[in-house]
């Protein structure tokens, strides 16, 4: 049986690309990595994702799979192993998908506005970002009380989808001019952050929050001219 050919096209700080890294590393899948320049995208990326022309793209045995949550689902199906990311129970699966989608709709949206917006819209973005994290704290206490992850004792689909935002927290606070509440107010969130950061498979690809913060500050200056 021939060895699978697995390649990830990505841009290093992307939380969407980190989802794919995390899923592959949690599964122990070997893969090649190609760093992309978003201002000068490779021919391979443009051909692999002609609809959106965006990272990440996973190329498995010559076939491209696009969009981060679609890719994570694909990885979980192709390499189920002993660590399933999507629960078998239909309701638990729906809950995991809901919170993964919440990351895109609420965390990413607010974070993007923190980088791009000015004035009152910028201030509101900070409030929206904190609201989203508060809801994640509440959800962790309800879905998996006493456990470190949405998946209980191990990371599941929702954890993989939301965990990449952690290394962006410092940068969002820096450009947003706010400080997040501490563990006294959000105990479940901070327990989850500590648990995620302690997983060896997560450490492999996670960039330092200082490095991400430098990028966030550059992005804000690029889009707004503001320091």
UniProtKB/TrEMBL annotation:
GO cellular component, one term: cytoplasm
UniProt KW keywords: Transferase
Catalysed reactions, as listed in the record: RX + glutathione = an S-substituted glutathione + a halide anion + H(+)
GO MF term list: glutathione transferase activity
EC assignment: 2.5.1.18
Top EC group: transferase
Residues of the GST C-terminal domain: 89-223
PROSITE patterns per the UniProt record, alphabetical: GST_CTER (PS50405), GST_NTER (PS50404)
All copies of domain GST N-terminal, residue ranges: 4-83
Gene Ontology terms: biological process: glutathione metabolic process
A Pfam match: GST_N
Protein name (Swiss-Prot/TrEMBL): glutathione transferase
